[in-house]
Design goal:
131 residues, 7 helices, mainly alpha
């Protein structure tokens, strides 16, 4: 038996707003993952500055891409949001550790969940906003 929240339609405006908000971190994370997979000198220099060995760059890029793909698939988007939260939490911790600005990964995480909240009635039923 399905709950009413799973059957409740999402308004077209809310659905499109959710898709647009979700597209921002998806584009950012996809670009970031591809750059890690290509490994230009700038990325290797930045990884060294952050305290990571060159040998982990491709693994982190693959992880980032896989988490993003899981988020993009509607049936697995909640799992993808959870995985991206962990990934972005690690990015935040890395930047905090070396006293770098950490707002970008936090903002990306907010956009991941905000976009999902707008496009998924089940999430809105789980976390209702009350006036």
């Amino acid at each position: 038996m399905q709950s009413d929240s799973q059957n409740a339609p999402v308004s077209k405006k809310m659905l499109w707003a959710g898709r647009i908000v979700s597209a921002l971190p998806v584009l950012l994370l996809t670009f970031s993952a591809v750059v890690k997979l290509v490994k230009p000198a700038e990325v290797l220099t930045e990884f060294a500055r952050l305290g990571y060995n060159e040998s982990v760059v491709i693994g982190i890029g693959i992880l980032e891409l896989l988490c993003t793909v899981v988020y993009v698939i509607p049936r697995t988007s909640v799992l993808g949001a959870i995985l991206l939260t962990g990934y972005l939490g690690g990015a935040t911790a890395t930047h905090v550790r070396i006293s770098d600005p950490f707002i970008p990964p936090v903002l990306a995480g907010v956009l991941v969940w905000g976009g999902l909240y707008l496009r998924d009635a089940r999430l809105r039923a789980l976390i209702p906003v009350r006036s």
